[in-house]
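Project outcomes to date are best conveyed with an example. Our students and postdoctoral researchers have been running inverse folding experiments weekly, and each run begins with a structure described purely in C-alpha cells. The record below, which covers 116 residues, was selected by the lab manager from last quarter's runs and is presented without edits.
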C-alpha cells in the first residue's frame, strides 16, 4: 500500500499539468483516509503482539502528517483564490457597484461646480 500511496503522491506533485485546487484537496483527503486505515491496522497488530507492525505504524503517522499538511496548504490556497476572485483585499470585499456609483456622483458634482 505504501508503494501505491507514493505513486499517488508523485502523480500529484510531479504531473505536467497543475491540478485544480479542489481536485487536489479531494485526492489528499482520500490519501489521508487510506493512511488512517493503515495506521489502525498496524495498531491492531501491535496490540496483538506483532512488533513488526511498529515500523508500519510510525510510517503511517508520518504519512498522515504529510497528508494533513497538504490538505491544509491546499485549503489555504483555495480560500486565497476565492477571495481574489471575489475581490477581497486585506479581508475587505471591494464593492465595485458602490465605487462606480460614488465616482458617478463625484463627477456629477464636478460638472455642476465647473459649469460643464
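After processing, the design step wrote out the following sequence:
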Amino acid at each position: 500500500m505504501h508503494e501505491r500511496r507514493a505513486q499517488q503522491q508523485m502523480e500529484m506533485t510531479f504531473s505536467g499539468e497543475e491540478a485544480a485546487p479542489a481536485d487536489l484537496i479531494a485526492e489528499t483527503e482520500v490519501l489521508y483516509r487510506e493512511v488512517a486505515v493503515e495506521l489502525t491496522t498496524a495498531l491492531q497488530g501491535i496490540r496483538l503482539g506483532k512488533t513488526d507492525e511498529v515500523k508500519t505504524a510510525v510510517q503511517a503517522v508520518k504519512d498522515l502528517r504529510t497528508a494533513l499538511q497538504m490538505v491544509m496548504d491546499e485549503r489555504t490556497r483555495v480560500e486565497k483564490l476565492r477571495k481574489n476572485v471575489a475581490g477581497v483585499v486585506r479581508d475587505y470585499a471591494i464593492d465595485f457597484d458602490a465605487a462606480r456609483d460614488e465616482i458617478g456622483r463625484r463627477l456629477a458634482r464636478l460638472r455642476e461646480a465647473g459649469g460643464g
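The first strand starts at residue 88 and ends at 89. Residues 53-86 form the longest helix (34 residues). The training component of this project remains on track.
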